[in-house]
Amino acid sequence: MTAGIHRFAAFELDRDGRALRLDGREIPLQPRVFDLLLYLVENRERVVSKEELLDTLWPGVIVTEGSLQRAVSLARAALQQGGLGEALRNYARRGYRFLVDEPPPATAADAQDGDALAEAECAFAAGRWRAAMAAFASADRATPLSAECLERWAAAAQCAGELAAAAPPLERAAVAYSSRSEPEAAARVTIGLARIQIESLDVAVTQGCLRRARRLLSGLPRGAQHGFLAWMSARLHLYNGDLAEAIRCAIEARDIGRELQNADIESMGLLIWGIGLQARGDTPAGMALQDEAAAAVLAGDVSPLVGGIVYCGVISSCCNSEDWRRAEQWTDSFTRWCERCHIDTFAGACLIHRAEVFAMSGRLALAHDAIARADPLIRAGAPWALGDAYRLLGDVLFARGEEDAAEQSYLHAYQHGWDPYPGYAILLHQRGRSDEAVRGLKRAATLTNWVAGERRGRYLAHACQIASLAGALDEARALLEALDRAPAMWASGAAAAQVDRARAELAWATAEQDEALRLFARAADVLRHQRAVMDAALLRLRLAEALAACGEHGAAAMELAAAEAVFESAGAGGYLSRCRALRAAVSGGGG
């Protein structure tokens, strides 16, 4: 070292000039990344604890360990440009040390390999996920990557929405960390593997990964990986329908996240806790926790990968509970967040949720396109969502008037383990199979998985509507009583409007016409407020039918015109034909 300059390999670290140079070329570094690298270089004779680094780099500021990890990742990316990506070494449960081994004489091939890896690290640090994937793959073909590089390769794949591509590098990283006797790091990537495996419905493999992670962490002080393990365990319990255990593990993850000031762990704990409460019937409390998790993402406290997971969970719950206004607001916010983070959240299963928002807002062509783009992605990385894609496609086809194709799509949804309701029940009712429709909705409402739990209110509301329309009034009353016993599962969002419509259909069937008309109109207002454009138009069509039956042809014509405008714009030929048939009847009756 001379005049405040540290030299190692082809690098110069200029303390006074606050610059890192490689062969005379300056490599830009964020201020805290420079401070981190300088501190480790100047204390290279020892392992520096994480606590010391946090106190030194962020004096008087409360930050999470994730901030340190991101700074280390960026420093490694800069050093990798000169082939020293492994100089910042992580010592499990101890900290970091700057340690440079003298490399053998470089060859031309070595330089090319180093260029590929440097390109990968730079792309990763800049959030160019697909470019990072390609560069990591290229570098790995030349020289097998280190465990750390494999882990970053897998993270880039997940941020790009390519879950299936993340599994092979994670599997190799787990083996590498184990061979280096780094149980905490091995547990970290094993938990990441569990997340990918459950998306692929490989539940046995998921359980095996979590058992291994638990064994690797046994005896270690409670740390971040215990929090990630609690979150992933909650996710598995949620899939298995064990809501109580899912909530318990989610609260544990939340608590560990707060204890460690780790926003990633805390937000994922809040997410699963909220989904569990919503599936158990307490939608307002569940959505409040999910909103808190999503707000942490938008505030910039959460990593891109975890942010994508949180968004997907929140938007799924919004769709399941028919809270379209909240779904639209979070989608708009997260679209801007994705652009900032260069993350492809709208991929695979999340693309299906976005397609459902499109469909409900009357943009059927966009919904159909999103489903088509999602199909190959979910087949490769999240096959559990294939049934949901078929269900939504059935709804789109039904709205267009392609009833036979819609029925086939609904049947495909069921074959892939997904209940195709309420759309399939409405189709059955329209074809004169109302009893079958009600039975199917009631069965779907009794299932214990979290999706059925989140949708239970809408299932029972539609069952009540169909029972009233079919004249099964005792059945309709019993269903309405069941809804009234658990108002928390439907009191918010568009589900409340569907319950109002259920009350209206029962009132209409029992000749309480004024009450029915009042409830139909109130439900339509709620749906418009919730931005449930298609459902609001369908309710206006139903209100027009009721008004026409009461002889109020002028009012019926106004409701009908409003509904027709929506269906024409959406290309909903099936619903439009019903409007035109009623218009002909109203025109004839109105003289």
UniProtKB/TrEMBL annotation:
Residues 3-100 form the OmpR/PhoB-type domain. Residues 3-100 bind DNA. Keywords: DNA-binding. GO terms for molecular function: DNA binding. One of its GO terms (biological process) is phosphorelay signal transduction system. Signal peptide: none annotated. CDD domains: trans_reg_C. It comes from the Bacteria. This is LuxR family transcriptional regulator.
